[in-house]
Amino acid sequence: MRRILGTLLLSLLAMASLTAPALAASPHFIGTPTITKNANGSLTASFKAAGLGNLATDVFLSSTGGTAVLQCLNPGGNDPPPKLVSFGPLESHVVTVDPRNGQVTATTDPLGPPSLPGASGICPNPNWSVQLVSLTYFDVELHVQQDGVDILTYDFGDVDP
Question: What is each CA distance from 120 to 12, 51, 73, in whole angstroms?
Answer without folding.
Answer: 71, 51, 12
